[in-house]
Design goal:
Blueprint (H helix, E strand, L loop, with lengths): L2 H9 L13 H7 L4 H27 L2 E5 L5 E5 L4 H4 L8 H13 L6 E9 L9 E3 L2 H11 L3 E4 L2 H10 L13 E3 L2 E5 L3 H4 L3 H11 L10
Parallel strand pairs: 2-3, 2-5, 5-7
Antiparallel strand pairs: 1-3, 3-4, 6-7
């Protein structure tokens, strides 16, 4: 693999195949039996699960978190250093950092419906609306991550890194090595300044190498 390939992957220029997220409604439709009755039961079950999950995500927003992405995510990106637009109500990861992360996830093998983003700061106005932003309480952030229930949690910046360590009851430097850590069956990784790295080619390469540490896990044998 060339350095140019790595640079394209982290900058969001590389193409990728699209796939339905495992556990999503489309995934259930794809895997369900061809028997109409069984297929219909699977579809109703999947729709009901997704409806309940979306209701839980709505509660996360009501508590002041900003969030975006799928209600049935495999990967959850935590962001603590919000852009000016995100502080004013733009969707989380709507900028260049989100484009680069989504392109990277596709290259790793994740589907478009397998990611979510969650702020580690909350708005006093609620529902991620413009207002006074302050760090989420550790227990509140831990609860919000449980609602998303991802397999992988990625801290995009150092603010998010410290917040995740606190939420999971770990020492502040638990993720500072930028190596994968496991806790309660989940993988955790800190990228450390992902958005700033997009302006520098060598730094983008570093970020891509870190992201390659959290590929989708294979199905159990």
């Amino acid at each position: 693999m060339s350095d140019a390939d790595d640079k394209d992957r982290i900058s969001g220029r590389a193409g990728a195949q699209e796939a339905s997220a495992p556990g999503s409604v489309e995934g259930v439709r794809r895997d369900a039996s061809e028997d109409p009755a069984v297929r219909g039961a699977y579809e109703r079950m999947a729709i009901d699960v997704e409806r309940r999950l979306r209701a839980e995500v709505d509660e996360v927003r009501r508590r002041g978190f900003s969030s975006s992405g799928s209600a049935m995510a495999t990967v959850c990106v935590l962001k603590g250093e919000l852009s000016a637009g995100e502080r004013e109500g733009e969707a989380l990861l709507a900028g260049a950092d989100g484009d680069a992360l989504r392109a990277s996830f596709r290259r790793l093998g994740y589907g478009d419906g397998e990611w979510a983003a969650l702020s580690t700061v909350v708005s006093s106005a609620g529902e991620g609306r413009p207002g006074g932003w302050s760090p989420a309480a550790p227990e509140a952030l831990a609860w919000a991550i449980e609602v998303v229930d991802p397999e992988v949690v990625i801290a995009e910046d150092e603010v998010a890194e410290r917040a995740l360590c606190s939420a999971w009851g770990q020492r502040p430097d638990w993720l500072a090595s930028h190596e994968v850590r496991w806790l309660a069956g989940r993988r955790a990784l800190s990228l450390g300044g992902f958005e700033d790295a997009l302006d520098d080619v060598p730094s983008k390469r570093v970020m891509w190498n870190r992201l390659k540490l959290v590929p989708p896990l294979g199905e159990p044998a």
